[in-house]
């Protein structure tokens, strides 16, 4: 939906042009500055279609387009990217997520050759891409802070490690399902080169072990979100390292990590106690969701006992088991049904303090 501010801005531009005697009889008569304002009011598909029939629109794209999504393109996406890339020199965000894989290495190479200001790139589900694409991105897109490669199954860990040597500003990296690319060696490279990393999705990367996760914990101390769901080889050692080194950790996914035991839970609880002063200072300000763990998924971690999980829940006020606020997810752990967050305990105290009149 277009905000009221958009049309108002255009009205002012047209009024100014009338006062200056500017006459518009064709598309090409519209100043580039005005076209750039129009860019912000129409969808990406319309912009691309217009650029194919009007040189003014092509100029506007070259000068002002900073964000573009081509996920709507169901056919000939590769050719479209090849034709557009030279014009997108100011682009900062590019979404190329596909349900039907079309993108090939030559298109990614074109992006890397021309879009040097790119900060956010989504290549998820690009099943046709090979290591050549990662090498191209590494050489041409060194300003990347966010990269989504989820579902890209053909990359190797060598190419991923190479990428981290050049894209050192990465803060958000989605590698979910990149089984071949995500190895302990690749995680070691991320830990060594991407020290600003804050969010990392390693879901279903089943080849990684404690060695790789510990490299992350030591090299990425600012890590806030880590998804390790389906990483079946990791043990308590990984969680202990994360608890000790990543003090800003807010979200941890351990779904189906069946080697996790109570030791991991107690290490998380202990880390919260160590940072108790800062955490409670934020709690007093009403910022329950800004300090400590606020999301933990331990579904199918069947070795865990209620006392250990309750210790974590008691330590971090933002973890909830109550209806509608499930941030402590325990699906498949039938022995953990007695674990409850502070909300439920408070509700129980309130109920007992004010008994029903019938009683």
TrEMBL record:
<dbReference type="InterPro" id="IPR006553">
    <property type="entry name" value="Leu-rich_rpt_Cys-con_subtyp"/>
</dbReference>
<dbReference type="GO" id="GO:0019005">
    <property type="term" value="C:SCF ubiquitin ligase complex"/>
</dbReference>
<feature type="domain" description="F-box">
    <location>
        <begin position="27"/>
        <end position="61"/>
    </location>
</feature>
<dbReference type="Pfam" id="PF00646">
    <property type="entry name" value="F-box"/>
</dbReference>
<feature type="domain" description="F-box/LRR-repeat protein 15-like leucin rich repeat">
    <location>
        <begin position="140"/>
        <end position="281"/>
    </location>
</feature>
<dbReference type="InterPro" id="IPR001810">
    <property type="entry name" value="F-box_dom"/>
</dbReference>
<dbReference type="InterPro" id="IPR057207">
    <property type="entry name" value="FBXL15_LRR"/>
</dbReference>
<dbReference type="Pfam" id="PF25372">
    <property type="entry name" value="DUF7885"/>
</dbReference>
<dbReference type="GO" id="GO:0031146">
    <property type="term" value="P:SCF-dependent proteasomal ubiquitin-dependent protein catabolic process"/>
</dbReference>
<protein>
    <submittedName>
        <fullName>Uncharacterized protein</fullName>
    </submittedName>
</protein>
<dbReference type="InterPro" id="IPR036047">
    <property type="entry name" value="F-box-like_dom_sf"/>
</dbReference>
<dbReference type="InterPro" id="IPR032675">
    <property type="entry name" value="LRR_dom_sf"/>
</dbReference>
């Amino acid at each position: 939906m277009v905000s009221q501010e958009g049309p108002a801005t255009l009205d002012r531009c047209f009024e100014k042009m009338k006062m200056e005697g500017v006459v518009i009889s064709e598309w090409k008569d519209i100043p580039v500055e005005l076209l750039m304002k129009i860019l912000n009011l129409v969808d990406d598909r319309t912009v691309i279609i217009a650029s194919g029939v009007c040189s003014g629109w092509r100029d506007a794209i070259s000068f002002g387009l900073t964000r573009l999504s081509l996920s709507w393109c169901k056919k000939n996406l590769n050719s479209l990217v090849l034709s557009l890339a030279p014009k997108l020199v100011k682009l900062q965000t590019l979404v190329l997520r596909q349900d039907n894989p079309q993108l090939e290495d030559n298109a990614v190479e074109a992006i890397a050759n021309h879009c040097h200001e790119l900060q956010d790139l989504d290549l998820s589900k690009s099943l046709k891409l090979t290591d050549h694409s990662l090498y191209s991105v590494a050489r041409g897109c060194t300003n990347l802070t966010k990269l989504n490669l989820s579902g890209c199954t053909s990359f190797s860990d060598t190419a991923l490690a190479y990428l981290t040597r050049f894209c050192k500003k990465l803060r958000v990296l989605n590698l979910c399902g990149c089984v071949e690319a995500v190895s302990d060696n690749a995680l070691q490279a991320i830990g060594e080169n991407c020290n600003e990393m804050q969010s990392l999705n390693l879901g279903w990367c089943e080849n990684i072990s404690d060695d790789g996760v510990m490299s992350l914990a030591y090299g990425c101390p600012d890590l806030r979100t880590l998804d390790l769901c389906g990483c079946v080889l990791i043990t308590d050692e990984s969680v202990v390292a994360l608890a000790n080194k990543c003090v800003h950790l807010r979200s941890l996914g351990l779904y189906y990590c069946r080697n996790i035991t109570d030791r991991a839970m107690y290490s998380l609880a202990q880390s919260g106690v160590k940072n108790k002063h800062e955490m409670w200072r934020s709690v007093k300000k009403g910022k329950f969701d800004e300090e400590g763990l606020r999301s933990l998924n331990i579904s199918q971690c069947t070795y865990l006992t209620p006392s250990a999980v309750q210790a974590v829940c008691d330590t971090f006020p933002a973890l909830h088991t109550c209806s509608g606020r499930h941030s402590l997810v325990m699906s498949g752990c039938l022995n953990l049904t007695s674990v409850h967050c502070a909300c439920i305990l408070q509700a129980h105290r309130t109920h007992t303090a004010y008994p029903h009149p019938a009683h």
